[in-house]
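Obj.: predict assembly geometry.
Materials: sequence records (below).
Method: joint structure prediction, all chains together.
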Amino acid sequence: MKLRKLVDVLAAPLLAIVFSLVVTGVILASFGANIFEVFSRMFDYGTSTRSLTLITNTATTYYLSAVAVAIGFKMNIFNIGVNGQYRLAAMTAAAVAGWIAMPGPLSAVAAILVAMFVGALWAGIAAWLKVVRGISEVISTIMLNYLAIGVISYVIVQTGIGTEVKLNVRGTPKIQEGARLAGYALIDPKVKVYGFFFIAIAVGIIYWVVLNRTRFGYDLRASGLSPSAATASGVNSKRMVVYSMLASGAIAGLVGLPDLLGKEFSYTLNFPANYGFTGIAVALLGRNNPIGIAFGALLWAFLDISSQILDLEGVPREIVTIMQGVIVLSVVVAYELVRRNRVRTQQQNVGKALAAATTNEGSK
Amino acid sequence: MSDAQNAVELIGIWKRFPGVIANSNVNLKVAKGTVHAIVGENGAGKSTLMKILYGMQKADEGQILVSGKEQVFDSPSDAIDVGIGMVHQHFMLADNLTVLENIILGSEIRKGFRLDVSGAKMKISEIAKKYGLELPLDEYVSEFGVGDRQRIEILKVLYRGANVLILDEPTAVLVPHEVDELFKALNDLKSEGITIIFISHKLDEVLTIADEITVIRTGSTVGTVNPKTQTVTAEDLAEMMVGSELPTPATSESTVTDKVVLDVKDLTVTAHGGKEIINHVNFKIHAGEILGIAGVEGNGQAELLDALLGIEKSTGTVQFLDQDISDWSTRRRRESGIAYIPEDRQRQALLLDAPLWENRMLGHQTLPPNSKGFWLTPRSAKADTTRIVSEYDVRTPSIDVYASALSGGNQQKLIVGREMSGEPKLLIAAHPTRGVDVGAQAAIWDHLRAARAAGLAVLLISADLDELIGLSDSLKVILRGKFVADADPATVTPKQLGNAMTGAGAAA
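Observations (raw C-alpha cells):
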C-alpha cells in the first residue's frame, strides 16, 4: 500500500522528466550535438559544490514563489500577481531596512514583516476587486503587476527614497551588515547558502500544517474541491477568497528577500524580475504539495544553474528553457492521467469489496 | 416482430449503475407522428432511458429499433444520424452568437473553405416556416427569453434532420402562456409528421398534449394509456406513478412534544429577476416531530432548504430553539445543531476528490470529533468515520478511498451517518434514502425514528411518497413555492397526496 502510494506520487513527475529529456535530446541531436556529452557536462557542472550552493539559493526563492501560488491554486484562485507583489514588497522592505536605523536583527525582522504586509496589501486589492466587484483575479493581478513596476520606478527615480547606489544605478541605500541574512558556507567554502533557506523550510512546514491540520486549511481545500459543498458546510466563500489571497500575497512578499538580504542588499531597478512566473510552473510541477514543490524548485534551479555551462559547449542555453517548458506541459498531462487511473482503480477496489460482501451474505 | 409504423421501439432495456438499477426491462413503442409522453417520479429512470435512446449512455441489455430497424448508438451523433434529436432541460446556447450561428454551430454548411451563410439561412428559414417556428435569425441569442430559446433549440435539432424529438422536461422552465405556445408548436410539428417524446411529471400538461402516455416506476414501464380513446384522469396517472409496493416505513406512536424547535414565519426567497421561488411560507416543527413536505421537484424545495441553512438569501424570520437565527451565517446555524442532508449530494454534501474521513468533517469541521479550536483532529475524525462506516453499513474497503469511488447509495449512507452524528436538534433532509438499497433504507429509517424519539425535529422532503407518509407526523404540500395543502399522514393515501402535488386535486 505504502509503496503503491509512492509510485502514485512519483509516476507523473518522473514520466514528465523522462519525456522532456527525450524531446530535448531530439532537438539537441538535430543541432548535431552529442546528447550524452551535453547532459553529462551539465550534470558535472551542476553538481560542483559551488553550483549546488547556487542551486540551493535559487531554489529558495523559487520555493517561496511557488508556495505563494499554491495557496491560491488550492482554492482555484490564480494569483498571477506574485511578480508585482514581491517586487513592491522587496522595494519597501529594502527602503525600511536601508533608511531606518534599527539594531541589526530587528531591522531584518522589520524587513520581513514589512515585505509580507506589502505583498498581502497588493494581493488584497485583487481580492477586494473580486469579492466586491466580481473582477477575475487573473486579470486584476496581471494589471497590478504593471502598476507595481510603475510605482517602483516612480519611487526609486523620482522620490528621495532612491539614491545613487553605484554609478548610474539608483536604488535604496545598502542595508547594514547586521541586518543581512547573508547565510553560511555550508556546502562550498567560498559561496554561502542564504539564511533565507531556513526560513523557506519553515514556510513549507507552516504551509503543510496550516493546510492539513487546521480548520482554516480544511475550509480552503474544501473551497477548492467543491465551492458549493464548502458553502453548504458553512464556509463563507467571499471571506475565504480574501483570506487566501492575503496569505498568498504575504508569502509572495517574501520572494524577493533571499536575494535582497543575502546578495543584493539594495533594491535597484535591476532587481531580478520574473520569479512569479517561475513560481507558477514550480507549483504545477510540485502539485501544490510542500515536498513536491521543494523537488520542483530544486529541479528548476538545477536546470537554470547547470545550463550556464552550455554556452562553453557551443550549445544554446535556451535548450534548457525548452526543457522546462516541456516538463511543465507534460507534467500537467501526466498528473491528469495518473489521477484518472487512481479514480478507476479505487472504484474497482470498492466494486470488489462490494461483490465480496454480497457473496458472503448470499452464502449465509 | 415489429412494424415500421413505430418511429422508435425499445425492447427489454436494462441499465445498471453500481448499487442501483436505473432501468429494468423497459419496453416502449412510440408511433410515428404522435406526441408520446413519458411520466414518472423523479429518479424513476426517465432520464436514463432517454440518454440511452439518444446515445449518451449504453444499455446493458435490450434493443433499440428506429423505424423498425435495429440500431446501436455509441454516441449522440449516431442517434442524430438516424433522425433522433434531443432538447435538453438546460439550454445549450451561446449568448454572444446570433440565432443563425447557434443553429449551424457544429454542423456548418461549407462552400470551399468558407461558411455558406446564405445557404444555411435559406435552409433554416424553410424549416422554420414549415413548422411555424419563425425567429429573427440575425439577432443575438442574449436578446431572447426562455420560450424563444427553447424554440431555437428545437430548430437546431430539426436543422440536423431530426424527425424524432426528445424533449426533457420542456415546461419546467416556462410560464403558463409560454407552455401554451410550446404546445401549439408541438402540434404543428406533429402535423408535419415529426414524432415527439415528451418527458414530464406534470400530469395535467401531459394529458393536454400527449396522444399516448407511458408510465415509468422504479425503472420499469408499468403501462401505456391513450388519453384520446380512454378516459384517463390525473388521479389514475398519479396512482400508476406512485404505486405502493414498498413496505410502509410506519412510525410507531407519536413522539411529538409541544417544544417548538423551528418556527418559520413569512419566509420568502426571491430569484434573480424578482420571481418568488418561496412565497411567504409559515410553519413550525416541534421536538420529536417529522414534518414532511410533499411536492414535485422544482417547486421550491431546494430553495427552502438552502434558505433554512442560510445558504440562500431570504426574508422573513426563522426561529430556532427560541433564538432568531434569520441573520446567522450557515456555519453558526450548523454549529448550533442543524444537520443537513441536501438534495444534490454530490454538489452540496461531498468532496468527491477527498478521502471518506475528510468527508466526515464536511459541515462539521468546527466541532469535535473533527477539530479542537483552531486545529483539526484527524485521528478522532478517522475513528468516528470508521464508526459511521460500520453503523450505517457503508460498503468501502477503507476510509482512505475517495468519495468518488463509492456508489451513490453508499455515499448517501455516509452522509446520513455524518449528519446524524453529534446529536443534532434539527435535521433538514431531502430524499434521505434516495438510491440506497432496501436493507439500508430500513436502517436509515430506524436511525431517523430513534433520533425522533430522542427529541429530534425533522424537516423531510422525499419523492418517495410511502416514505413521506410513513415517517411524517404531519404533512404539507408545496406547489410553486407555496404550501397549498395540509395532510394527515394517518389517513392520506399516496394517490391523494400525488394529486395534491400536481395540483390535480385536494389532499385529505
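Conclusions so far: Chain A has 14 helices and two strands.
To do: check interface contacts against the pulldown list.
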